[in-house]
Every structure is written in C-alpha cells, then in structure tokens.
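Intended use. Records like the one below are meant for learning the mapping from a protein sequence to its folded structure. Do not use them to infer anything beyond what is encoded.
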Amino acid sequence: MSLIDNKGRVFGLINIIDLLVILLIVAVIGRFTLMQKQQSAGVVTKNIEVVVHVKEVRDATCNAVKVGDVVKETKTNAVLGKVTNVEIVPSETLVETADGRVVVYPNPVYKDMYITLQGTGSAGENAIVLGSNEIRIGTTLQLKTNMYSVTSTVMSIDVQ
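Structure written out for the chain above:
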C-alpha cells in the first residue's frame, strides 16, 4: 500500500486536499487559542487612581464638579471612575507690565482644577487601560457627567 493511491487519497482513506484543509483549520484555531492565552496572561484588573488637570474653567464648572460623581469618557461613554478629590486653584496668566517685563499673575476669571478619579482597569506591561481608554501621563481625556463636560490632561497614574 502506497502513501497516496491513484485517486489522490492518503492511505486510501482521505483526499489530500481535504486533509490539507482540515490541518489548516486546526492550525488557525490553535493559533487563536494561543494568542488569547498570551494576551490574558499579562493583563490584570486593578484599582487605578488618576489625577487629571482641567485648565481655565469658570466658577460655574468648578461648582458643578463634586466628590462622588461617576465620570464617563465623552466619545465612548465608558465609565472612567468616581471623583474622590477636587482641588481648585487660580489659573495663572502671563501679563506684560508697563516696563516690558512678563510676569505670572493669577487670572481673576478662570480657575484650574485637579480632579482625582478612582476606577478599575487593566494594567499590563504595555498599557494601562481605564474604562476603554488607554491612558498615559500627558494624554487628553474628555470627561463628562450629566451636569458637565470638560477636557483634561492626565497628570499622574497610580496603579494599586
């Protein structure tokens, strides 16, 4: 008995093309299974604390932000976390004096806010994901609740 007979079957049992298709399907399924195991091994769900900086907002916006607010990302509507702390400081403006010097002066109209968010996300070796957003220090986040919407910059990340 030869390896392939005159009808193109391996050991007279299965057509060689059918055998190649079955092997290809098994290889593809095996590859996806291995990829899933590798991806899930490096990602762990953890509590993440993020401090964001909101620049130059008016008093009305400052008064709307409260501790306990559940904050979502504007575009994806994914929950980022809960507000645990709000720090409001005067916004600083560069002003040119009469003698030509440029000095930093507190802006009488605008305030800056530092908002601390506590949420759960995944922290892998390549990225930190909060809600459905990959975050890094310096990235911009659009925050919203049913009362306000602000643009912020990530200042610090603490994975607990």
